[in-house]
């Protein structure tokens, strides 16, 4: 994306993450920050760096004439603008395509909001959206309370979706307004669960250990030491697991096919739990992975990072961060440190 200039007027996560993904691909990203800076600067340097490496920072108070003049100047030479703020703030600060079209009719303006540009200003933080879209209700043990994932799934997903929408509109050669709402992104990711309800009236239910709705066995399992995630869909994989685990044929004779296993979920899971108690999580992983069985011992983040050193990059400024997940033949991202507030100009 060398030569593509992107403006970002974002805070915290969704907008900054979207523009960082594009920066990693070679775009020149300029953050337009208020005099107090992106709110994530107040969280901590490492937090801010994880979402803003390699960008430029221009301070502009968009509530003033001078700030608006600077915005219009930047917009005239940019390909796109990403913003994640309340809809009323986006309009008030002139961060829509309608407001910026006089300065650059080919500008792509991407607005990330909670519920849409015309849906009002209801608070829409990541956890709020997970609660509002059914994600929290789907997560956790059946008899337990709703549960939130341990990371910001809605914000990150919305950021990736916004980056895709921005690229699609740039490729079209037209300027215009692109909208991405956190609510719509999370509902879209409930694809097959929503389809089952909309077309068959089937409401999703929670299963123990996060088990899959259709595939059995596909969930977390306890072992002699630690937990594993195992995901068996093919009958061949099932037979391979049964043989390696030493399960007597008579214990599994009633469910040789995927359909049989789905119809006998509790019995199948009981058989698997008994078998997995014979070895540790890492032991089962070492035994089953070479045979093509989808399995992984549950790891901590430090363990996962230690086993994937190629995912960690030096961004400069003393920061080690997770690099771009997009690998392109012949292209190597150039990672830079996060900018100081107003490092590239003020208005």
Automatic annotation (TrEMBL):
It comes from the Bacteria. Keywords: Transferase. Transmembrane segments: none annotated. Pfam families: CoA_transf_3. One of its GO terms (molecular function) is CoA-transferase activity. Gene3D superfamilies: Crotonobetainyl-coa:carnitine coa-transferase, domain 1, formyl-coa transferase, domain 3. This is Carnitine dehydratase. It comes from Pseudofrankia asymbiotica. The lineage of its organism: Bacteria, Bacillati, Actinomycetota, Actinomycetes, Frankiales.
């Amino acid at each position: 994306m060398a030569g593509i200039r992107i403006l970002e007027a974002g805070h915290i996560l969704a907008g900054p993450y979207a523009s960082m993904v594009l920066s990693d691909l070679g775009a020149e990203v300029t953050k337009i920050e208020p005099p107090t800076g992106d709110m994530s600067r107040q969280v901590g340097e490492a937090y801010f760096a994880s979402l803003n490496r390699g960008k430029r920072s221009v301070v502009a108070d968009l509530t003033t004439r001078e700030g608006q003049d600077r915005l219009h100047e930047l917009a005239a030479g940019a390909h796109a603008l990403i913003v994640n703020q309340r809809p009323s703030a986006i309009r008030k600060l002139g961060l829509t395509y309608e407001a910026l079209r006089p300065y650059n009719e080919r500008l792509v303006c991407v607005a990330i909001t909670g519920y849409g540009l015309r849906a009002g200003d209801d608070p829409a933080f990541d956890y709020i959206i997970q609660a509002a879209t059914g994600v929290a209700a789907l997560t956790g043990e059946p008899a337990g309370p709703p549960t939130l994932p341990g990371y910001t799934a809605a914000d990150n997903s919305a950021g990736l979706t916004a980056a895709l929408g921005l690229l699609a509109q740039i490729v079209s050669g037209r300027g215009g307004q692109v909208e991405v709402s956190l609510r719509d992104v999370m509902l879209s990711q409930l694809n097959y669960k929503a389809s089952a309800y909309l077309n068959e009236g089937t409401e999703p239910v929670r299963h123990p250990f996060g088990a899959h709705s259709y595939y059995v066995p596909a969930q977390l399992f306890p072992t002699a030491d630690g937990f594993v995630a195992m995901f068996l869909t093919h009958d061949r994989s099932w037979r391979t697991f049964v043989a390696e685990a030493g399960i007597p044929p008579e214990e599994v004779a009633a469910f040789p096919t995927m359909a049989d296993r789905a119809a006998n979920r509790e019995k199948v899971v009981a058989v698997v739990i008994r078998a997995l108690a014979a070895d540790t999580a890492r032991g089962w992983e070492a035994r089953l992975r070479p045979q093509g069985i989808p399995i992984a011992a549950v790891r901590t983040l430090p363990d996962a990072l230690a086993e994937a050193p190629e995912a960690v990059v030096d961004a400069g400024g003393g920061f080690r961060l997770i690099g771009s997940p997009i690998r392109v033949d012949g292209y190597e991202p150039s990672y830079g440190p996060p900018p100081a507030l107003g490092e590239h100009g003020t208005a």
